[in-house]
């Protein structure tokens, strides 16, 4: 099945959103007034503190690696002309993810921070290697 990704011009007021990674499952998909329910207060060393549904949360903002941008995608209903073609549209973008944990702040180099290291690592592994014929290794 083919997937067509359509990237229309996003209105300036909807372009950037704040992505939140919560330590729970919420059975809802769609926009939500997060700012009304999750009010973060800054703490020392870049920590964030908030409460959600009466539960204390500690957070840390994780910027995406250089050259990366996150996107919020919305799936469109299949077209009647080509039932194998699905279309998704970028509705918003983000440049950082706020990672939250219950009752504590995520460690500076743990969790999501490790996952965000894979993009640049994969790029380095799969990028072309320059052909340096003068520096060829001799067999031992």
From TrEMBL:
GO terms for biological process: RNA catabolic process. Residues 59-82 are annotated as: Disordered. InterPro entries: RNase_H2_suC. GO terms for cellular component: ribonuclease H2 complex. It holds the Pfam family RNase_H2_suC. This is Transmembrane protein 223. It comes from Gallus gallus (Chicken). The gene is TMEM223.
């Amino acid at each position: 099945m083919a997937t067509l990704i359509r990237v229309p011009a996003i209105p300036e007021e909807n372009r950037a959103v704040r992505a939140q990674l919560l330590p729970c499952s919420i059975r809802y998909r769609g926009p939500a007034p997060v700012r009304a329910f999750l009010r973060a207060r800054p703490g020392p060393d870049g920590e964030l503190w908030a409460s959600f549904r009466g539960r204390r949360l500690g957070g840390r903002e994780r910027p995406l690696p250089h050259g990366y941008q996150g996107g919020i995608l919305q799936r469109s209903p299949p077209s009647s002309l080509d039932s194998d073609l699905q279309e998704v549209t970028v509705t918003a973008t983000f440049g950082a993810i706020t990672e939250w944990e219950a009752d504590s702040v995520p460690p500076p180099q743990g969790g999501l921070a490790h996952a965000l290291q894979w993009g640049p690592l994969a790029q380095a592994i799969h990028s072309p290697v320059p052909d340096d014929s003068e520096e060829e290794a001799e067999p031992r």
